[in-house]
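User: what does the whole thing look like in 3D?
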Amino acid sequence: MSMSSPRAGCRWYARRLPLLAGGELAGSERRKVERHLIACGACRSRREALAGALGVLHAVAAEVPAGASDLSDAGSLWPALRQQIREERHAPRRPASGLGLDDWSDRLPGWLRLRPRGRVVSLAGLAAAAVVALVAAGGVERWAWWRAEGVIRAARRPADVPPSLLTVQPLPTSGPVLVWEPSHPASHPSSAAAAAPAATPDGSERVDYDLDAGTPMGPDARERTAKASY
Amino acid sequence: MRQGSAGGSGSGLDPTDGEGVTSGLPPGDVGAAPRRSARSRPRVPEEPEPGVGLGAEVGDARLVERARAGDDAAFAALVSRYERKLVRVLTRLVRDGELGRDLAQETLWRVYSRLDRFDTARRFGPWLFRVGVNLGLDWLRRHAGTAASAPVSIDRPAGDGRPAFDVADPDPRVRVELAQEVQFVLERIPVTYRTILVLRDLEGFSSAEVAAIVNRREATVRWRLARAREMFREHWERRHGSGPSSTPGRGEGER
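Assistant: Here's the predicted 3D structure for the full assembly of 485 residues, as structure tokens:
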């Protein structure tokens, strides 16, 4: 039986049936819906269908997700994590480059630095051009803000940076190393220099980095972070 | 079993109220399927606290405080409490076990790095899962349309005359097939709704916890959950019919 749309009189109740099926309905709302079900066979059928679907979900809930490597096979995450923590505590300060930009890039949050699975985009050769392009696009403000953030964080807690989730690659010059992992489609290394200015104040294509959560977020990020936080 | 009150205070998250966190299970005790009725929330059996020298009565807030003070064993205890569930949630989102583990480790690392900024008046669990879910969703966003994210389905075209899944079938092969099918159908649901469905109906978080994790008001989450369940039902029925009690054709009005 395919579910036909509820009649107008049933709509209020039909919308709540999924919640009734899952136990989220309570109090007077619940009583109203249950009273309606006494008289309405169509809604009863809908409720049964929903209960069936929920039953499927619950039956699967106990299964280890398809394709999952269960922890009991692969072991706890703690040993690797502990190693990461120790490495970070004992990580030697990287030697400062002539421009001091290596130090600055050290203070970037981990996701903005070199990543093993991500793309490493060395703008070393294009450093001057990139800076000019960013300045031209008004991006220097953001750059300076990043830098300020980094400095402030470093002042608060010098060993704040996550340890190498990745290996450090020696730079051919002392230029900055930017890892660009926006959810923007134009994130190829070849277009990185073009992407950098394009991603700034234009707005529509911009990727916001939610520094609090530390993840690059898509365009709906502003909506998310604007809500009252938990 | 508790019938959920709206946004109930019970949860799939708090280890100290014995409601069942999927962490600290002894090795080998995998996938124990508690009996449940079709209308109750999924429950995971109560589990013993991990043996890291910290008593079961030590709540998350205490552990967070100790971890901030440099007590690594305290953070290890937090990891123990939550890592299984974290890996499960992420694996369900990104559909790859190894990637789920990687993202879980990344999540734990970020959380560790941000302990000093964490407000202990908040609950640790929802915050942890919020970081994790964001990482998972972000991965999905970045890899939408790639081979890694393409759903794998059992070749089971609708209406081929075979009987619908017997949900109660204990045969492990059937259960695996069922799980795969559910995963396939979940892929058909937009990720916002899918996430809420995974958190609530597959992982047993309360509505309040889901709201905290996805950072939305609880009322919003409830409506999305209702929509998500309808979507799931619709897609499932399209693939598998609507069960042995269904009658062919459309029914309208009173029985």
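In plain terms: The helical segments of chain B are 60-68, 72-94, 97-113, 124-142, 172-187, 191-202, 207-214, 218-240. Chain B touches chain A through 105 residues (CB under 8 Å).
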